[in-house]
């Protein structure tokens, strides 16, 4: 080889494991190995500033079952109900789903069992109001969460990462961990059918801030060996070419235009590298992208989009002005909505709402968009209960290119046409839908199922307190001004990946483990190459990284 990393001196003892990727799942695996007194090398193509990967940018939501937070809010949950919801959501129907099913059972036991206590012992705490994401809207055995299960970590994504980064840093100080940034793995070393190490390119130093694109200039090569290699490299959401390549036929034509909900380094490049080493990739056509993306007015990475986490009251129209069908209301069925929008032949849709709704119901996904929760700032958090939209939401309303604010419908429609001049908008239909919907508000009962859903949501204490606006007429001047938001498809998660057994060992085409090779987190489809099946229940992505990383670390430590 032309050059070797100075850090790869043969004088150092061989590590027990090499972890490819310094995101949440890799850090959790490393933390478990440190606890067991094992030596670990973590390699990552990004600079040190991006330690923690995309988990840093997350809202920090975790799926828990029958938690104290739920019980305090009067929510009755159980493992049986959670299993019913998971099965109805996943829709497992392939031979490749065998390990995904097993991982789902194990993960549900974890989420209903020791998950919260394990995190609590590490100092993780939760916001007391549990969110209700992916509400479904079908029958009891269909898609969706029957009850609120989205537990927001106090500190959001950085709060989830903190104990594991601390453990890895302590391991580094103790000589158990080596963090090697700017090390891009190009191949896994295979000898006698076993993975025994990695080799790749040393990338030039880069002072890019967290999340910013870094250079790919090679300045040398490296090789590292260990009896175990853990692939923790994430998914494909930052690589739109791959997203379109694997776009499922069941969801129509891939969007021409998309925003990125993850940094560019979430590129999927380790998946074919791992496949060449003998691992089996499954369910590549299963993915999780959002339909409520808005263009970030202050972007960090290319095509940076932010997801609106909506309450249920905004009226949702497609690009031409047709109201989305039941039960495609905000926050109910992410992929059902994505499939419907793709079928329209357009890449965007619209929310139409009021100031009263945006103040109560709009939250933005991402640690940087929630400074109160991320910074653990109680005084700032209290402002959510007051009048006015949260400051980050207000900033988007005032500066975001996708927002239209107006006092009258005519002005609102003019603004909508101005930011989407290429699609003819049936404003007469939008007005007809709004006026008809407003008539339904006069009674406490209604044939409009969205209004029924809103009223049902307000029976949950958490939603009534901070998440769902009192039903009101959209055209009531007291609730104004009127607001329209142009929504884009936002890439986010891969639901398929490297197939693994319940020890996080990568499996080959014949179903047997590839010796020395493990996979965790999104690279493993959050477990088994697809623990979620076709759809997810939210709060299960970070949780899947935690669970698979913990499983791999403990399995390697046991030898």
From TrEMBL:
The keyword Flavoprotein applies. Residues 17-542 form the FAD-dependent oxidoreductase 2 FAD-binding domain. Keywords: Flavoprotein, Oxidoreductase. Gene3D superfamilies: FAD/NAD(P)-binding domain (3.50.50.60), Succinate dehydrogenase/fumarate reductase flavoprotein, catalytic domain (3.90.700.10). The keyword Flavoprotein applies. Transmembrane segments: none annotated. InterPro entries: FAD-dep_OxRdtase_2_FAD-bd, FAD/NAD-bd_sf, KsdD_DH, Succ_DH/fumarate_Rdtase_cat_sf. It holds the Pfam family FAD_binding_2. NCBIfam families: PRK12834.1. This is Oxidoreductase. It comes from Agromyces ramosus.
């Amino acid at each position: 080889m032309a050059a070797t990393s100075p850090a790869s001196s043969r004088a150092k003892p061989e590590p027990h494991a090499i972890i490819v990727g310094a995101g949440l799942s890799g850090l959790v695996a490393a933390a478990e190995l440190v606890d067991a007194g094992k030596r670990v090398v973590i390699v990552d193509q990004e600079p040190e500033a991006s330690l923690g990967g995309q988990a840093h940018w997350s809202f920090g939501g975790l799926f828990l079952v029958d938690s104290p937070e739920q019980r305090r809010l009067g929510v009755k949950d159980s493992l049986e109900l959670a299993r019913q919801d998971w099965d109805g959501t996943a829709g497992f129907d392939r031979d490749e789903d065998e390990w995904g099913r097993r991982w789902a059972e194990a993960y549900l036991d974890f989420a209903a069992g020791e998950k919260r206590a394990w995190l609590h012992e590490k100092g993780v705490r939760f916001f007391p109001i549990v969110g209700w994401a992916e509400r479904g809207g079908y029958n009891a055995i269909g898609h969706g969460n029957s009850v609120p299960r989205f537990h927001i970590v106090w500190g959001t994504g950085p709060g989830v990462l903190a104990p594991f980064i601390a453990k890895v840093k302590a391991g580094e100080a103790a000589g158990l961990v080596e963090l090697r940034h700017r090390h891009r793995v190009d191949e896994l070393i295979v000898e006698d059918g076993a993975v025994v190490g990695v080799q790749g390119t040393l990338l030039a130093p880069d002072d890019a801030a967290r999340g910013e694109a870094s250079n790919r200039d090679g300045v040398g090569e490296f090789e590292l060996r260990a009896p175990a290699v853990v692939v923790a490299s994430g998914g494909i959401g930052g690589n739109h070419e791959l997203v379109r390549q694997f776009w499922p036929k069941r969801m129509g034509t891939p969007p021409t235009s998309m925003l990125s909900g993850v940094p560019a380094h979430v590129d999927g490049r380790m998946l074919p590298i791992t496949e060449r080493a003998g691992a089996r990739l499954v369910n590549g056509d299963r993915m999780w992208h959002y339909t409520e993306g808005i263009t970030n007015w202050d972007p960090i990475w290319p095509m940076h989009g932010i997801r609106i986490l909506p309450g249920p009251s905004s009226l949702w129209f497609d690009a031409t002005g047709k109201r989305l069908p039941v039960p495609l209301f905000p926050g109910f069925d992410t992929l059902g909505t994505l499939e419907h929008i793709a079928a329209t032949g357009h890449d965007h849709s619209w929310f139409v709402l009021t100031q009263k709704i945006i103040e109560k119901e709009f939250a933005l996904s991402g640690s940087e968009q929630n400074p109160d929760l991320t910074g653990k700032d109680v005084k700032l958090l209290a402002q959510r209960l007051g009048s006015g939209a949260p400051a980050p939401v207000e900033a988007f309303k005032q500066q975001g290119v996708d927002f239209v604010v107006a006092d009258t419908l005519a002005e609102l429609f003019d603004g909508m046409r101005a930011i989407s001049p290429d699609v003819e908008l049936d404003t007469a239909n939008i007005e007809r839908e709004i006026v008809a919907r407003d008539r339904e508000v006069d009674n406490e009962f209604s044939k409009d199922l969205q209004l029924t859903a809103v009223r049902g949501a307000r029976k949950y204490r958490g939603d009534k307190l901070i998440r769902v606006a009192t039903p009101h007429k959209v055209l009531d001047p007291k609730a104004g001004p009127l607001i329209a938001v142009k929504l884009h498809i936002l890439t986010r998660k891969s639901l398929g990946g490297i197939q693994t057994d319940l020890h996080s060992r990568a499996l080959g085409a014949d179903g047997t483990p590839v010796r020395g090779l493990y996979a965790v987190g999104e690279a493993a489809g959050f477990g088994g190459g697809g623990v979620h099946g076709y759809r997810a229940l939210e709060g299960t992505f970070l949780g899947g990284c935690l669970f698979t990383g913990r499983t791999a670390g403990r399995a390697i430590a046991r030898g």
